[in-house]
């Protein structure tokens, strides 16, 4: 996407173009923190065509439970041959330090998630 502004050139033109790109990225995924305490964080995530950038994996220090409230998505977990398909009502528990990524969210309709992050449980 190129934005042309009369008289804008050099750094100003680059800054405008960068802001436009960042705005487009923000449209793909919006995260609202609904609750945060020292041990718990609850987020509402709205994704429209969002994917994790190639080569990037999430690897959080907290357990994460996520549920899809609306839409569809695919999550890939390192070491699993196929991504997991998620639809309305589907949920998954992601233990701390389990590498995972968003492979796909529906580009035509928002996917709404709730994500609950909490301290890892003791695993003996």
What does this protein structure show overall?
The chain has 124 residues and is α+β, with helices and mostly antiparallel strands. The chain has a single domain, classed as Sandwich (Jelly Rolls). It is built from 1 helix and 8 strands. The strands form 2 sheets. It has a 5-stranded antiparallel β-sheet. Strand 4 (73-77) and strand 5 (84-86) form a beta hairpin. The longest helix has 19 residues, at 10-28. It is globular and about 40 Å long. The N and C termini lie far apart (52 Å). The relative contact order is 0.23.
Keyword list:
single chain; alpha+beta; globular; Jelly Rolls; 124 residues; five-stranded antiparallel beta sheet; 15% helix; three-stranded antiparallel beta sheet; 40% strand; 8 strands; disordered N terminus
Structural class: alpha+beta
**Overall tally of domains:** 1
Largest sheet: 5 strands, antiparallel
Give the topology string: H per helix, E per strand. Answer: HEEEEEEEE
Total DSSP E strands? 8
């Amino acid at each position: 996407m190129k934005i042309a502004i009369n008289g804008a050139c050099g750094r100003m033109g680059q800054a405008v173009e960068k802001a436009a790109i960042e705005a487009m990225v923000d449209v793909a995924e919006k995260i609202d923190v609904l609750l945060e305490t020292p041990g718990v964080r609850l987020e509402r995530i709205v994704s429209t065509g969002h994917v994790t950038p190639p080569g990037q994996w999430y690897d959080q220090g907290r357990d994460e439970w996520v549920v899809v409230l609306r839409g569809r998505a695919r999550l890939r977990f390192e070491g699993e041959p196929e991504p997991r398909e998620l639809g309305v009502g589907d949920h998954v528990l992601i233990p701390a330090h389990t590498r995972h990524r968003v492979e796909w969210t529906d580009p035509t309709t928002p996917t709404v998630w709730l994500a609950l992050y909490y301290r890892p449980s003791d695993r003996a």
